[in-house]
Amino acid sequence: MSEHDDPYLWLEEVTADDAMAWVRKRNAETVAELTGSARFAELRDEIRAVFDADDRIPYVRRRGEYLYNFWQTPANPRGLWRRTTLEQYRLDEPDWEVLLDVDALGEAEGENWVWDGAAILRPGYRLALVNLSRGGADAAVVREFDLAKREFVPGGFELPEAKSFLRWIDADRVYVGTDFGPGSMTSSGYPRVVKEWQRGTPLTEAVTVFEGKPEDVSVYATHDPTPGYERDFVGRNIDFYRSERFLRTESGDLIRIDVPDDAETDVEREWLLITLRSPWTVGGTTYPAGALLATRFDDFLAGAREMDVLFEPDPHTSLTYHSWTKNHVLINTLHDVQSRIEVLTPGPDGWRRAPLTGVPTGALSEITDTDPDVSDEYLMNSSGYTEPATLRRGVVNGEPEILKQAPARFDATGIEVRQHFATSADGTKIPYFVVGKDDPIARPTLLSGYGGFEVSLTPGYLGHVGRAWLARGGTYVVANLRGGGEYGPNWHSQAVKANRHLVYEDFAAVARDLIDRGITTPDRLGIQGGSNGGLLMGVMLTHYPELFGAIVCQVPLLDMKRYHELLAGASWMAEYGDPRKPEEWAFIEPFSPYHNVRADAKYPPVLFATSTRDDRVHPAHARKMVARMREHGHDVRYYENIEGGHGAAADNEQLAFKWALVFEFLWEKLS
Description:
Elements: H1 17-34, H2 38-52, E1 61-63, E2 66-71, E3 80-84, H3 86-89, E4 97-101, H4 102-109, E5 113-120, E6 127-134, E7 140-146, E8 151-152, E9 158-162, E10 165-170, E11 173-177, E12 193-198, E13 207-211, E14 218-224, E15 231-237, E16 243-248, E17 254-256, E18 264-268, E19 271-275, E20 280-282, E21 285-287, E22 292-296, H5 297-301, E23 308-311, E24 317-324, E25 329-335, E26 338-347, E27 350-355, E28 364-370, E29 377-383, E30 390-395, E31 401-405, E32 415-423, E33 429-437, E34 445-448, H6 463-468, E35 475-479, H7 489-493, H8 501-516, E36 525-530, H9 532-543, E37 550-554, H10 573-576, H11 582-588, E38 606-611, H12 620-631, E39 636-641, H13 652-670
Parallel strand pairs: 34-35, 34-36, 36-37, 37-38, 38-39
Antiparallel strand pairs: 1-2, 2-3, 3-4, 5-6, 6-7, 7-8, 7-9, 10-11, 11-12, 12-13, 14-15, 15-16, 16-17, 18-19, 19-22, 20-21, 22-23, 24-25, 25-26, 26-27, 28-29, 29-30, 30-31, 32-33, 33-35
Helix pairs in contact: 2-13
């Protein structure tokens, strides 16, 4: 099937009358099938209670003297942007200062606003750039907000709806990338041009400072206001993994930061940190993929190439991320998908390293915030599949204090967490976690995976999954597939483009291992994944249907012939390949689910879910797949939230409804 004889192209017109009529009809069928039982109502209410719980942790980010939080409740489903002090936050009931009520704003303006974050100007912390999305789309409007007056700035910086960025330079200047008209966006739908915009002048008078190429993914510009180290950077994202970076001088000259295109860089005060995706030979030394290197930024620009190795991977250990405090670097690593945190400290004799004090054992701990301009403070969140989250605040070299602890959301009595390794078709060991009762009963089992874009699936509390699935006797499994980042960049890079099939072989191997161990049976094994994980589900449906009893495919990529034409799809060609090239379409086509639906195949029942307002992965992927499966009489159902963006839900009510549909479908088909 070529795109020229694709009978369902009309479903790509997102809000066309005939397409939306088709969506509403499919929605009605699915809602009628899945929402009539008492169990659905229980699932929906229990899941909603998890999302809305008053005693969940209000996670915060420090900006100056305040801790900022975004909070959704049944009374404020679109949420409150608010702040408090550390002293107040330590209390059970902090006194929060509400900055912006998104529900009230939407009602006053007659808009369906969804919060999309804010950037606060350092170091004064008086002004913010607030992002608001209609219905949860990636495209957003940007408005300047006065934190002292708690109101939008009249005549301040403002952008209409687009996939934009607005970055502070100082109180009167910003970098802006947006849709300036024809030719100003890349083929991926992101800004191609960066301009400097002066307060009080129209956007049309903003001055171009940098341009990328039409085929680039995007461009960017940032200003680092760190006192004594103020710098500006611009760059172009050539593809999803490669970038070209420049220091922009006061005169507007650009100085190339000469690192490998696929490396990541971080400039903090006098230091340049480089994270390698591939081996790099420089200064007479070869550094391996996955290493973290440090050098002095000014020396590097001057030509010096002496590097300190802050982290070097081994077959079981990879770097997840690093975070700066004022005097230290915190590095978080994964050892067989178990987290470790170390403190690295520069000194006259090189870098010293030590474990971070007070990191709990047995849980996955992550640094959620630091304040590197000011102090060595950090916030650390720890949780496990069955261990509710604990938020700690520490200062490096001291014992951290517990700030908040979440209560359990489900009864975990008798539920254990085990790690196994399946053997993939090429002999590679694939780790996976099993969460459930350790008994000889083959239980209804839900297996989830992703396998792409260096994304690591790590243990975290299973809140709504625990309540809707584990507490009802189900088993939950997470597969750590190649394509992810669990073992560093090589774990990802060995499964891109022509080797994408390894991801699918890995997932099938985990499914077979679950069956061989007696943990479940094919008719009791359900799978679920979204986005790139939705593509994974589509391949499982079309290539391995005999292994599964039910499939949930959410906000998926499925038409891999046209994915690069749809919304942000062109930005992912570094992952999947370019279907316009015959030699690449040759390895894409066998795993394009839309092109591999067979009339005579026996598929397990499947639920597709997406959102009309998803402007990242086009809803037509799921629409067209469902239409083709219906054409051939297969057992398929479809639900499209009319808003909600790539998360497929704009508030907790919609989120609970979506997940209740998923779990009702799974319980109905697997039990």
